[in-house]
Specification:
3-stranded parallel sheet, 119 residues, mainly alpha, single chain
Length: 119
């Protein structure tokens, strides 16, 4: 990438990488390294990402407030893991799938994960 592109990435607040099915952990780490101000990362249907890769990327993105993981994984462990170190993370549509799985989707709103219990 040119220096101009890299400068723009450093200031990026949001990146939409949706439907890039070939995206994997290395791409997420690149984003984490080059976009220190990132607040929102949309990864819908980036199905090659692993739970460990996602968690590592989120850990490095200290300003990240929203990550859209719908269609990325059906392993809700990723939500539990991220909530341990970023309890107010907005997970987009994956949050509703997570709450439905845990049996706590009573209202369309953010619910404290500690209130969710498996049946």
């Amino acid at each position: 990438l040119s220096p101009v592109c890299l400068g723009s990435l450093r200031r990026a607040a949001s990146i939409n990488a949706e439907y890039m099915g070939r995206s994997h952990g290395r791409n997420l780490l690149f984003i984490a390294q080059k976009c220190p101000q990132l607040q929102a990362l949309l990864l819908t249907d980036c199905f090659r990402l692993t739970t460990d890769g996602i968690c590592d990327g989120v850990r490095q993105l200290s300003t990240l407030k929203k990550i859209e993981l719908y269609g990325v994984t059906s392993d809700f462990v990723v939500v539990d893991e991220i909530m341990r170190f970023r309890p107010k993370m907005d997970f987009g549509l994956l949050w509703f799938q997570y709450c439905a799985e845990k049996g706590c989707l009573l209202k369309i709103e953010m619910v404290d994960p500690s209130e969710c219990t498996r049946a």
